[in-house]
Automatic annotation (TrEMBL):
InterPro entries: G_ENGA (IPR031166), GTP-bd (IPR006073), GTPase_Der (IPR016484), KH_dom-like (IPR032859), KH_dom-like_a/b (IPR015946), P-loop_NTPase (IPR027417), Small_GTP-bd (IPR005225). It comes from Paenacidovorax caeni. The gene is der. GTP 2 binds at residues 187-194, 234-238, 299-302. This is GTPase Der. One of its GO terms (biological process) is ribosome biogenesis. Keywords: GTP-binding, Nucleotide-binding, Repeat, Ribosome biogenesis. Pfam families: KH_dom-like, MMR_HSR1.
């Protein structure tokens, strides 16, 4: 088992910067803005022969009694409970605050191994200027600069030392094809993305609060269902471009788009009480452009009457007609209604997006389609299709070779797409068809 290190501290002391330094990544959003991180954020790190897991947490207020700060405090307390060692991060330049004392009192009561780390300590004398932090009663103070990487290596060594880790065994490296299926949950703000993931997990893993924009980062959570491993990615809600004012929200949008592009399957979540908006159509269009397999789910289905349901179904048929290959489900994340069929569609969409299409079958199907309906003649030429093969997966790409294929109409491409989809049961994934015209050796000769 990898040891777990939890980063704890008040807002804006540099926990996310230290998280990125320890994991050698840029997974956590970093900005000079207090309260940016809200959920628990997990990452993998390695130093020498030893691997470890790091948990980034939001600004901690142990006595928060209400609102989103209470939800953030619950996330931090859960991270501390899961960890083997706690790294308490303070601001070396701001000095000790009353909130630091509250956090220190909370950590002392737990009795868990704890390191007191003074961040932003570049250029400071550790003996004199950091002496005030000893009053927190947590022992030695370790000065670091997460932004510049100073003292971070020694910090990891100190964190892992009391755990008495055994020598790691060489397992021969990761096995090919054993990675989890990446499932991103995308949609507008406040449609219930975090609530849905919490329902799947059976715990309050993510901050779910009745306020748009609660989730700011793309949070990954490992999950296993019926022996199959998944990586659930909760994304920030995407609003219209003209309504994104804060710089933080612009970072969140970038993280969400990156999460969609890196996912294998995207669950597009709609709000039954709001209907299908222009922004829902924009998000769906981006998913289609990215080539991701997609499943559509309408949340809060229990909160609308029969008339609203009928109008919503018609709206989906018209406004999201370009995703007609995707399965549609009506669910209630809060009441756990309709969630089983969603998983069936997710697995089916991933299987379709990664299916293998043998060249002989593709070529036979292509020639049968041409015999059934020949391409339209343009001028004095008629496109001639010779053979087809698979050019890629997720999304599936079929490459067709022949002569004068630049004359093939979009309507005929849709006809071929329908034949290929039916043969290979390609449900829930976009299908791309590429035409490659053979070079004419006599074109340059007199």
């Amino acid at each position: 088992m990898k040891p777990v290190i939890a980063l704890v501290g008040r807002p804006n002391v540099g926990k996310s910067t230290l998280f990125n330094r320890l994991t050698k990544s840029r997974d956590a959003i970093v900005a000079d803005f207090a309260g940016l991180t809200r959920d628990r954020h997990y990452g993998n790190g390695r130093q020498g022969k030893y691997e470890y897991i790091v948990i980034d947490t939001g600004g901690f207020e142990p006595d928060a009694s209400s609102g989103i700060f209470r939800e953030m405090a619950k996330q931090t307390q859960q991270a501390v409970a899961e960890s083997d060692v706690v790294v308490f991060v303070v601001d070396a330049r701001a000095g000790v605050s009353a909130q630091d004392h509250d956090i220190a009192n909370y950590l002392r009561r737990l009795g868990k191994p704890c390191l007191l780390v003074a961040n932003k300590a570049e250029g400071m004398q550790s003996g004199v200027q950091l002496s005030e932090f000893y009053e927190l009663g947590l022992g030695e103070v370790y000065p670091v600069s997460a932004a510049h990487g100073q003292g971070v290596r020694g910090l990891v060594e100190q964190a892992l030392e009391p755990l008495n880790l055994p020598e790691p065994e060489d397992d021969g490296g990761p096995q090919e094809g054993s990675g989890p299926v990446k499932l991103a949950v995308a949609g507008r703000p406040n449609v219930g993305k975090s609530t849905l993931i919490n329902t799947w997990l059976g715990e309050e893993r993510l901050v779910a609060f009745d306020m748009p924009g609660t989730t700011r980062d793309a949070i990954s959570v490992p999950f296993e269902r019926q022996g199959q491993k998944f990586e659930l990615i909760d994304t920030a809600g995407l609003r219209r471009k003209g309504r994104v004012f804060e710089a933080i929200e612009k970072f969140s949008v970038v993280k969400t788009l990156q999460a969609i592009e890196s996912a294998n399957v995207v669950l597009l979540l709609l709000d039954a009480t709001q209907g299908v908006t222009d922004q829902d159509a924009h998000i769906a269009g981006y998913i289609l452009e990215s080539g991701r397999a997609v499943v559509i789910a309408v949340n809060k289905w229990d909160a609308v009457d029969d008339y609203q349901r009928q109008m919503l179904e018609r709206s989906i048929e018209t406004r999201l007609s370009f995703l007609k290959f995707a399965n549609l489900h009506f669910i209630s994340a809060q009441k756990r209604q309709g969630l089983g069929p969603v998983w069936t569609s997710i697995v089916q969409a991933h299987k379709a997006a990664t299916c293998k299409m043998p060249t002989p079958i593709l070529t036979r199907l292509l020639l049968e389609s041409v015999q059934f309906q020949t391409p339209k003649r343009v001028g004095g030429y008629r496109p001639k299709m010779r053979y087809a093969h698979q050019g890629g997966m997720n999304p599936p790409l079929i490459v067709i070779h022949g002569n004068s294929l630049e004359l093939v109409t979009d309507a005929y491409k849709r006809f071929l797409e329908g034949r290929f989809r039916k043969e290979f049961n390609l449900v829930g994934t976009p299908l791309r068809i590429e035409m490659k015209t053979s070079h004419n050796p006599f074109v340059d000769k007199e």
